Amino acid sequence: MSDQxxxxxxxxxxxxxxxxxxxxxTVARLALTAVEMGYEGLVVRNHGDADAEPLPxxxxxxxxxxxxxxxxxxxxxxxxxxxxxDAYDVDVVPAVEIxxxxxxxxxxxxxxxxxxxxxxxxxxxxxxxxxxxxxxVDVLAHPMRGAGDVNHVVVxxxxxxxxxxxxDLSRVLARTGGERVQALRDLRKLREIVSYYDAPFVVSVDTxxxxxxxxxxxxxxxxxxVGLPPGDVSAGLxxxxxxxxxxxxxxxxxxxxxxxxxGRYEKVD
Length: 269
Known about the structure:
The chain is an alpha/beta fold. It contains nine helices and nine strands. It has a seven-stranded parallel sheet. The chain has a two-stranded antiparallel sheet with strand order 8-9. Consists of a catalytic RNA component and at least 4-5 protein subunits. Its EC number is 3.1.26.5. It catalyses: Endonucleolytic cleavage of RNA, removing 5'-extranucleotides from tRNA precursor.
């Protein structure tokens, strides 16, 4: 497998989740549980059609979690990353998962979100090959789910373009019988091809509920069942944080939050 380890300053494990309105928990509730389980960061990766909007810290809090005048559990899921991060001592990474079967629409959404979010994922399925051929994509999410599949062409392109392939362990944890057997087969196939091409990867449990989160040690145990050594699982959980750090740097030294930067701006007529 790809050596994704780095120096002593590399981040610890990150949980990648779907929050309200797509999930049943707010970003704050997910952050609390993630910290209790030993995670260092939380990636909020809602699908674009059920987005949880990250707001700048200066927002008045009318619709955002933990705002001074907000509802405790806003239906639209809006949140202020800095506020949640400060409250729970966790890195909160605003992300998005593009979900569409139309390449033209996907390309437009990718251009939009690439400038707005620290991480951009593409929902695995019919657009697997398209996603791995565009280096602007950070993660091809759960590529084996549904109609999705991977082959040597897809994984080789992912390795060439630096697109991370996701090992989603949720189906192994949540399914039983034949469905669980198929999930194991899919992950073992993915592991074999990823290992062959030394392709980059991330690991998650891809949950939409705080009840679905699992501690890193539990995921390391599950990983061994599909042939992922504990060190690879740890590296895959930390890779979310490494990606976020890299992309925040690329957005500029004055980056504060998506769409928000410090400094002076000239008025454009």
